Amino acid sequence: MPDLLFDKDKHEYRHNNIILPGVTSILESGGLKEPYANISGTTGKGTRIHHYCEYMDQDDLDWSVISKSDLPYVEAYKDFKNKTGFKPRLIESPQHSHEHEYATVIDRTGVFDFNLVFKYVTLHQGMEVLLEIKTFPKQKWWGVQLAGQRTAYTPMTINRIALELRKSGRWKLHEFNDPDDYDCWFACLDIHKWRNK
Question: How far is the CA of 25 from the CAs of 30, 31, 64, 150, 192, in angstroms?
Fold first, then answer.
């Protein structure tokens, strides 16, 4: 949104010179997730992988700078795009909920080119999704995170999906369609507001 200022280095959102909470800090306030620094093996890795995937989507990725340990995750993202025909529309896009006064960065929105059936997810050609990129095994709070992001992003008909990139170079999709995720999200938001009165 043009009226939202996002400082990438501080991961800080401002609107009318007021600092807004982000989805991650709200989930932490609600006790659904630990800070990333407390999750083994995640420090810095997720940020790097996100940058590489962003460069790939912009056709500007220099593969030679990717470390051996990060490479499988980036290759997994490339394989995901090749096999699903995923076409990004928004890439690392800051969004602001004016009604609820919080902000977030949406990893991707986009559509699929193919009809595909996986064990837990069915993709349809032209299906629009809100896609969250992850580099660690599935967590239950991912669905609540995506509910918060989807609430901040206007098209509420969009599907919520997380893409788990694995160190094996493989990937897995997780679809979240439990309506209770939204109740949980707003409960976390209320707790965050109460704690920060």
Answer: 9, 10, 34, 16, 8
- Does residue 123 sit in helix, strand or coil? strand
Architecture of the domain spanning 5-195: Alpha-Beta Complex (3.90)
Please calculate the CA angle 173-175-180 and round it to the nearest 5 degrees: 150
Q: For the segment 43-55, what is each residue's pLDDT rounded down to a tens digit?
A: 689 999 999 999 9
- pLDDT at residue 36, rounded to an integer: 56
In angstroms, rounded to a whole number, what is the distance separating the alpha carbons of residues 147 and 158? 11
Give the Cβ contact number of residue 105 at 10 Å. 19
Using a 10 angstrom Cβ sphere, with 0-12 exposed, 13-18 middle and 19 or more buried, the burial of residue 95 is buried
Query: Locate tokens 């306030």: which residue?
Result: 29
Where do the structural domains in the chain lie, given as residue ranges?
5-195
Distance from C-alpha of 70 to C-alpha of 19, rounded to nearest angstrom: 33
